[in-house]
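ok so for the tutorial part 2 we go from a plain amino acid sequence to predicted structure tokens. step 1 is just haveing the sequence, like this:
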Amino acid sequence: MVEEQVAAVEEPKQDAVTETSETKAEVPAEKTKKETQSEPNSDAPRSKRAEPKKKVVKSSVAVQKEENANPTEIKEQKEVKKIEEKPSAEDLRKKKFAHLKLFNRWQTDVVVSDAGLKPYMNLSPVLVPWSAGRNIKKQFWKSKKSIVERLMLKLMVTGHKGKKHYHTSGPNAGQLVTIYKAVQKTFEIVEQKTKKNPIEVFIRAIEIGSPREGVSYIEYGGVRYPKAADMSPQRRIDLVLRWMTQTAFVQSFKGKKHVWDALADEIIATANNDATKSACLAKRTDLERQAGASR
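step 2 — the prediction. this is what the tokens look like for a chain of 295 residues:
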């Protein structure tokens, strides 16, 4: 009986020993799993592997330039960068008054595709295109005016052709409200017929109708010789506006047609590059033909 009791007491001790040995065997297995997970997989693609950082090595010439550079030069370079990054006054003004629409109806954020005419066409947002002669003291500051205002000013003196006065401009000269309403009605008609922004159609008409080349005269030995010359962008805009307004004035003279209808038809025909209907395009081709013949 005593031997059976001793055997019963020794059996659980052996079981405990086996259990501890099993737990000890499981612990290193778990450690090995964690170690294998933490180690980078050699079979993984190179893009997923952690690449070492590359050291930037400066050349001796660059190091010498940095050492020899004066602090004043460094400051000047920084100031130049700051000035270049600052937006211009015109850009700030456009952002500030971007909510304004011409005649309270049409946006003026139109892209000018002709790089030569872009600096000379003012499309800044404005409600009423009228500067009251603010820019007349300097010679070439008319480009500071809105391009729609320049159209209105050309309509006031449509009777003039060069230095001669072919027709009277009495009904239009100084009549600001009359011209203002005529231009507004013109843009309404252009919008109805084209289903586009009339400011954009007007800009395209200026770009297409403006001549690229003109004729200049050289006097030599008491004789004048014509010579072909490239035309300045300022004069290109002046000529195309003059041709548009003169055509509209002649068609509407003595009540043949309303000036806004005639001007709208001329703008649409010129923007569509329709030489059969546009008198502006006919004058442009005639001037360029004379320039080609006088080369």
